[in-house]
Write a structure and sequence with these properties.
Elements (H helix, E strand, L loop, with lengths): L7 E6 L2 H11 L3 E8 L4 E8 L2 E7 L18 E4 L3 H10 L8 E2 L6 E6 L5 E5 L1
Parallel strand pairs: 1-4, 5-8
Antiparallel strand pairs: 2-3, 3-4, 6-7, 7-8
Length: about 130
């Protein structure tokens, strides 16, 4: 078996329209396809960023994350950027709060975190 790369990451959101706006307009993901799944009563939005896809599921009534951030499951989603400092500035200008920039102990690279509308931790890392 040879796993080549991550094809996509899927997340469930509490407010579909708010999350769609966040990921497309604020973070710049492009829409591949958007579908309302009548049989399930939910939305599925496929977004593209580089070689990876992000699936957004708008499922009404989904339970909240049990604890933060150490619950089993997805810990955070990390994006590579050329400059953490420049990206933090852009995020802040778009109304997205970020944590202070720090250095990754193991890589020596700059990184920081911010959150999506549901509080999912998102990281930017050089």
């Amino acid at each position: 078996m040879r796993l080549e790369k991550i094809h996509h990451v899927a997340i469930i959101v509490s407010d579909y329209e708010k999350s769609k706006e966040f990921y497309t307009e604020k973070l710049g993901f492009s829409i591949i396809r958007e579908n309302y799944r009548e049989e399930r009563g939910d939305y599925k939005l496929d977004l593209k960023l580089g070689d990876c896809e992000l699936e957004i599921f708008g499922i009404p009534g989904s339970p909240k994350r049990l604890s933060y951030p150490e619950a089993c499951g997805l810990r955070h989603l990390a994006f590579y950027v050329e400059s953490v400092e420049d990206t933090v500035k852009e995020l802040n200008e778009r109304g997205i709060e970020t944590e202070p920039i720090r250095f990754d102990t193991y890589t020596g690279k700059r990184m920081t975190f911010f959150h999506d509308p549901d509080g999912l931790p998102l990281e930017i890392h050089e």
